[in-house]
Structures are given as structure tokens and as C-alpha cells.
Amino acid sequence: MGALSRPRRPRLRALIGLTALVAATALGGCTSSTTSSSDAKGDASEYAAAPLELSDAQRDEILKKAFLTDEIKAADLDPTIVQGLEEAGRDYSDEQVKAAAACLDKPTCTIGKGEQTLAILDGAGSDLWRRITRAQITVQATSYPNIGTVIYLQADGNLQTMQANLQTLIARKVTGIVTYDDFGPAMTAAYQQATNKGIPVVAYGGIPGKDATKAVVSQVASDFCDDGNQMAQTTAKMLNNTGNVAFFTGTPGNPQGAGWQACAETWFKQNAPNIAVVNRSNTSWTEGGAVSATTALISTGKKVDAVLYDYAKQTVNIVQTYQQAKQKVPAQVTWTSDNSLLQMWEKDLGTPNEWQLAYSSSINFEGAIALSALMNHLQGKDVPSMLMFPLPFVPAKKGDYVADQPANAPGPTLMPDALLSQVLGAA
């Protein structure tokens, strides 16, 4: 691992124009998605968060925790992204943490006395990453005094359920929606219905794509194509530009996986032609899916030198499956961080079984940026139609495993430690 250098900072490319989309926000109204945000009903101040003041040093520390590097500065990022990270990393009282924690096993809960209702619409909410991200959004919502209710609906990876859940939120006339879209453009028409009813939508992580700029206020994500480039560059360094690789992602056809895989393969063809993609697998982002996909890959007898996957918690299952099959563990390049994965890597370090690992931050802050964007829109502020943040991949190093944290700890997050502990304890 010592030969691996930190990947270059990803470029913040605007794959989708940074033209601010302003959707109608009058609750229950029936207006065009091109209505100016200045037409939103009510006093804009009612949508504002509690005041937040941070020193430059505090802001830099939040950014370092978010991206696992001190190379990314506030000036590199859109102000709404910085705002979302600051709100995610702000200090929360014990009362706010308790209010958020009490929500996490209920589809509808009360977090305050406000009249506004925030909806979190998730395409597949059963895995740990989604639960942590839900908690991050929920505790952040407690800093907005007029959000009194939070509704959480998740679709278990089923498009029809996702569409039905969205119709439920429209019928309940929620104030606004933040959503993880596992289905890409297939959800665009449904989002447009919400927008036409005056309910603004901001997508994060999984997003509907470039043709949805009139259907949603904004889309928050890393640049999937640049992510693929970064993963490919990191892999090429690990393999000295020669070898076979496998691509793993979650639900079939999800826009995240489709985006990074296409660009990673193109990067290999253009820059490391001796690296071949010999396998593509879907796991539905479940442990069983990861084990099944890895078992199937091993059974083909194909030599695989590296596995690229977009979920570190289940990279654990990939490594374990190789070990149980008494096969050499390929290098792993993965999104997010997982304490048990780091423990496994560190245990094998310096032994004949040593394998290489590179990973990104937990990225649970995506939902926080989405909530900031949504509330800014409700205040009548212009919000970019695309909010892209960088996703550096860093090589694992001794000491990254933290022995006094749970095995399922996701590495550094911006949410309160007490709330994270409760989420991990319930997992």
C-alpha cells in the first residue's frame, strides 16, 4: 500500500447545467414548475434554520472529515454544498438527538412544534448507509424550527412502490421532499407531478438525471463519471496498469452504478488498455447479494485482480467470500468506509494474504446538502439544478481501523456521535 499515492482531487464538472431551477412551493397549489421562487407563499424566514456561525478552522475541520483529505476547500465547492456540510456538522443538543433518534423506527414522527412536514423518500432503505443518512437528515431537520413532522417512506427497491409512496406524499401535502432515487429517469414523471402540485423535490445520491431538471429543484451527487475515473486511476496504480477487474454495484440499472462503471471502463481503455473488465455484478446492495455475486464470480474461474464496488459495508462480504473459498483476495476499491473492512485489511497487512484497499468517505452528508437546498428554495433563494461534490479515494493505512468503535462503524461522519451510536446499535 505504501506505493499508492492519494488520487488527484476530482474535478467539479457540471454534467448538468448549473442553471438554477426554481419550482413552485405553495403547499397544495397547482402551478408550473417554472414558477419563480419569489412566488412562494408565506414569510421566507419561516423556512430558515437556526443561526449557524463557524470559524474558518471549524469549517476546514468539517470539510476534512467529510472528504478524508484537507485538499478540498470551501472555495472549491458551491456555497449550498458548504452550507449543507456545515449544517450536518453543527452542534446538536441532547434534545435534538433524542428527537431524531425517536423517529428512526417510525414512518411518521414529530420532531418539533412547527407546522411544516418534511418527507424523506427512499428507493431502498433497508441497508445501514440509508439508515445513517436518514438519521443525518432527521437531526438536521430539528434545526429548522418550523419543521414539526418528518415522514419517511422507502420502497425496498421496487419502482411501483416508490411511485405509490410519492403519490402518498402528494396526497398528504407535505412541504417538501428529499429523495434517494434508485430508479433514475423512471421517476421523473412522478417527481413532476409533485412539483406541479407545489411540492418541491430535491434528489440526493441516486438521481433522475439530466432530463429531470424541470421535475426537481436540484440533484445532489458526486460526479458519477469522475468517480469512475478516480476509481480507475486508483486501480491502475494498484495493478501497475495490468490485470483483470470486476465491477459490482447495487440495484440493476441504478444511475450511480451505470455512471461510474461506463466512465471507469472508458478510462481503462484510453489510459490502461492492459486492464480488462471481465465481470459485472449486481448485489441489490444487500449482504446476500454481495455473497451470491462473489460466489458466482469465483465459480467462473476467472482471474480477478481488483474488485470495484460502490458500498464498503458489503465489500466485507466480498473479502470474506474469497477468504472462505481459500482464494487470494483481489484489491478492493470501494465507496464509503467500514470499520470491519479496515480491521480485515489491517489483520492481513504484512502477511502472505495481504491485499490492497482504497475507499472514500461515508458520503452520508448527501442528504444534508439536499435538505439545505430544499429549505433554501422554500426561502425563495436560487438553487443550482445540480450540486456536485468531489469524491476522493484514499489508500487504507494502518490506524484507520478504530478498535473502540463498533464493527459496523462507517468511519468519520458529520452527525452527532450519540445519534450514530444509536443507529449502529439498532443495526
From TrEMBL:
<dbReference type="InterPro" id="IPR028082">
    <property type="entry name" value="Peripla_BP_I"/>
</dbReference>
<dbReference type="Pfam" id="PF13407">
    <property type="entry name" value="Peripla_BP_4"/>
</dbReference>
<comment type="similarity">
    <text>Belongs to the bacterial solute-binding protein 2 family.</text>
</comment>
<dbReference type="GO" id="GO:0030288">
    <property type="term" value="C:outer membrane-bounded periplasmic space"/>
</dbReference>
<protein>
    <recommendedName>
        <fullName>Periplasmic binding protein domain-containing protein</fullName>
    </recommendedName>
</protein>
<feature type="signal peptide">
    <location>
        <begin position="1"/>
        <end position="28"/>
    </location>
</feature>
<dbReference type="GO" id="GO:0030246">
    <property type="term" value="F:carbohydrate binding"/>
</dbReference>
<keyword id="KW-0732">Signal</keyword>
<dbReference type="InterPro" id="IPR025997">
    <property type="entry name" value="SBP_2_dom"/>
</dbReference>
<feature type="domain" description="Periplasmic binding protein">
    <location>
        <begin position="122"/>
        <end position="381"/>
    </location>
</feature>
<dbReference type="InterPro" id="IPR050555">
    <property type="entry name" value="Bact_Solute-Bind_Prot2"/>
</dbReference>
